[in-house]
Write a structure and sequence with these properties.
Layout (H helix, E strand, L loop, with lengths): L1 H4 L5 H53 L12 H10 L23 E12 L2 E15 L10 E14 L4 E5 L4 E4 L3 E3 L4 E4 L7 E4 L5 E3 L2 E3 L3 E3 L8 E2 L10 H8 L23 E2 L9 E9 L2 E4 L4 E10 L4 E4 L4 E5 L10 H6 L3 E5 L8 E3 L4 E17 L4 E2 L6 E10 L4 E3 L16 E5 L2
Parallel strand pairs: 4-7, 4-23, 5-8, 5-23, 6-9, 6-24, 7-10, 8-11, 10-12, 13-14, 14-16, 15-17, 16-18, 16-19, 17-20, 18-21, 19-21, 20-21, 21-22, 21-23, 22-24
Antiparallel strand pairs: 1-2, 2-3, 3-25
Length: about 450
């Protein structure tokens, strides 16, 4: 008996068991805190989505982009809460949003608040703030005096107008400069929606002169010089303002024209009718009206083409400009043709539309041509290449290029210094962007 009282065998195990009790408790408490962190991360994602969606909806009221469908059937507050609901966060009892993933849980309450702000962190502007929170009972944390825990996240999205929106927009691919190209577009710049690292690329540095504010969704590359210094990279994409025009013309049938087909003679040059170019037409003289071509039109030699016109190339038709012509055209303010009034309104100031596919060579403007354009050249499915010694300059107004991709090579010159702000014939587009600032 005396030996048993003095025996120390098993004392270490007993001490270990005593020590494990608080250790296990701390580990369990850490696990509970870890679950709070996971919930907070989900709450932050919901807040980000809510603020961004609310701001996108608000853009509809501030400056809806031409040709961009904007669903304004609900308020910005509704759109923000809908986005939060799609990320599992809803106000209690308010779960009936389309795509909602909210599941009520006994003892857990959630809150989603969306607010419009006129300033944030002392900076004036238009902002949408989303605050998402979840209150739930504490379990092991009750040992520390906590009966409930509130997990919250906040996000703020800002609506921005680009101070100098682009006159040259690559809606899908890149903008490339090579050779001795010169671009002077100080009041409306250049933008690429490509996410590639060379979304705007400068190849070579001798002779390249680019004076234009530049934006890109992706990065900027250069083989020499410091041209990328002035390019704002990793920006929001700029919506194609004429996408509805591309859709409508892509669905255009020959039967829609008054003669039920495209004429094969130049007498069909009357406005709003269709002409089958058949690879042989060469435009010259004065144009006045809206012209639809199904064949390939080549402007070659040294003709002078003037007037007020809108040129539509559809069904595989294309335009090539070579030689040394002089082209002075102003886009129609009220285009005509077998399209809806809504689409024709979007075509205001549209100078050239070409639906040529990317698999072909695209639109090439080369030689020593001189183009004085007041209007928009829209080539959504193929690249536009300015080469040789070609030059483009608005005698008045503003020359805008929206294309799949844009390339400046050779000694080409583009002068858009005539573009100014406002809403007149020389105005660049008012582009709204949304970005998260918190």
């Amino acid at each position: 008996m005396r030996d048993m009282l003095h025996c120390r065998r098993g004392s270490a195990a007993f001490a270990t068991v005593l020590a494990l009790i608080p250790l296990i408790g701390m580990m369990a408490l850490g696990g509970e805190a870890g679950s709070w962190y996971a919930i907070q991360q989900r709450a932050q994602g919901a807040a980000d989505a809510a603020a961004y969606s609310g701001a996108l909806r608000m853009v509809c009221d501030i400056a809806q982009q031409p040709g961009v469908t904007c669903n304004n059937s609900q308020t910005y507050d509704y759109r923000g809460k809908q986005a939060a609901a799609q990320n599992t966060f809803c106000n209690s009892g308010d779960t009936s949003y389309p795509g909602s993933k909210c599941v009520p849980v006994s003892g857990i309450t959630q809150s989603v608040q969306i607010a419009s702000l006129t300033s944030w962190n002392g900076t004036a502007g238009t902002y949408v703030q989303a605050t998402v929170s979840q209150q739930q009972p504490a379990r092991l944390a009750q040992l520390l005096g906590m009966s409930t825990v509130n997990i919250a996240a906040t996000a703020v999205a800002k609506l921005d107008s680009l101070s100098k929106p682009p006159c040259v927009l690559a809606i899908t691919s890149t903008v490339t400069f090579q050779g001795a190209a010169t671009v002077n577009s100080p009041t409306c710049g250049i933008s690429s929606n490509s996410p590639a690292s060379n979304a705007i690329g400068f190849i070579g540095n001798a002779g390249l002169t680019v004076n234009a504010p530049s934006y890109t969704v992706g990065g900027c590359s250069q083989t020499g010089g410091s041209q990328c210094t002035g390019v704002q990279t990793y920006q929001q994409p700029i919506p194609d303002p004429l996408s509805a025009v591309a859709t409508a013309i892509g669905a255009l049938k020959l039967s829609a024209f008054s003669k039920g087909a495209c004429s094969s003679t130049p007498t069909s040059y009357e406005t709003g009718s269709c002409y089958n170019a058949g690879n042989s037409v060469s435009l010259s003289g004065t144009l006045s009206g809206t012209y639809y071509f199904t064949g390939n039109v080549k402007i070659n030699g040294s003709p002078t083409i003037t007037g007020t016109a809108t040129l539509i190339f559809f069904g595989g038709g294309s335009l090539t400009i070579t030689g040394n012509p002089t082209i002075k055209l102003t886009a129609m303010a009220s285009p005509a043709g077998p399209l809806s009034a809504t689409v024709l309104a979007l075509m205001r100031k549209l100078l050239i539309y070409d639906d040529e596919a990317y698999s072909s060579k695209g639109v090439n403007i080369s030689g020593t041509s001189a183009s004085y354009f007041d209007g928009t050249v829209y080539i959504p499915n193929a690249p536009v290449t300015y080469g040789g010694n070609s030059s483009g300059a608005p005698s008045s107004g503003c020359y805008q290029v929206i294309a799949y991709a844009v390339s400046f090579t050779g000694s080409t010159t583009l002068d858009n210094s005539g573009c100014v702000g406002g809403t007149g014939s020389a105005a660049e587009p008012n582009v709204q962007t949304v970005r998260l600032v918190q």
